[in-house]
Structure of E3 ubiquitin-protein ligase CHIP:
Amino acid sequence: MATFASRKIASEPPLMLILRQLPCVLMFLYIGRIVFFAISSGSIDWTKVEEDCRKAVQLDNNSVKGHYMLGLALLQRQEYAEGVKELEKALDLGRGADPKGYMVEEIWQELARAKYMEWEHESTKRTWELQTLKEACETALEEKYILEVSQLEGFLDEVSTKHMEQLESLARVFKIAAEADTPTEVPDYLCCKITLDVFRDPVITPSGVTYERSVILNHFKEVGNFDPVTREPLEESQLVPNLAIKEAVQAFLHEHGWAYKMD
């Protein structure tokens, strides 16, 4: 039996149906042009990609591919902040539409690469600024030392000792300042027990073990429905997002962008 909605659609003039579907048609047209540029020329015209993706997301702001490709285009122009923003939008939309889809993993890989590139760019800038400042401070201390030596001839040992202590204190201060940009090890509690990679979308089991969502779901599919650590029976419905760990990971990555580097 036809519903009211189906009778309404059937009764609409063909022109109205075309106009209703036009935004979706145009969005796919813009996204399709991106693929055409890549295939026909053997390379991607990122300027055209950015232009078409902006039009696509204007027509459908929930377009995963639109935000994804726009993010990649912005990264090509080294617009790291805006590129990351678009990739994060695409990742959120992708997880909402199909958490197990290949696009989610692909977007995360590009987002991690973008975050690392952003950190590397800013880290290089900070390192240069710190080194320049350190050299200026050392020069100022040296000038002060020479002046004090000339004015306090009978206290050379005391002046020299004080000068060395000041240089050591200066070195400690700048060493601490550079620690945030020095790669070390990611804490174990922020890493999946199966892959040992930093968490992206952590979920916790009833036994209290936390896994990366895509990894434990793949374990269910390839191995079986049980906890890899405790070996207890486990179903997908029992997995709960571990928001505390997710927030801890985000805080850590915000302070240590080097951890985004993918092996």
